Here is the input.
Amino acid sequence: MYAIVATGGKQYRVEPGQHLEVEKLDAEPGSQIEFSDVLLIGNGETVTIGQPTVAGARVVADVLGEVKGKKIVVFKYKSKVRYRRKTGHRQRYSRLLVKDIVTA
Here is the structure.
């Protein structure tokens, strides 16, 4: 069984037991979180597509902690005026463990 959920402006295909990194959520490590924006549920032969979401469906996940993504280098440059600025950015993500997909 799998589902497609929307969180943080992105869509993810999830299955029970899967580790997942999503945009940072306001949840403590060790707590449970539920996603109610389930767009699709697939169960082997049958596929249920939401209009826009599947009614009564939700995905339950445990919050494992917070991780940082790869470093992105931001380099600003203007020619002929000796202007150069180099900074970096590391996005923070929440690491989740998908426990269960609950249907209506």
The chain has one domain: 2-102. The chain has a mean pLDDT of 94. The first strand starts at residue 2 and ends at 7. The CA atoms of residues 28 and 104 lie 27 Å apart.
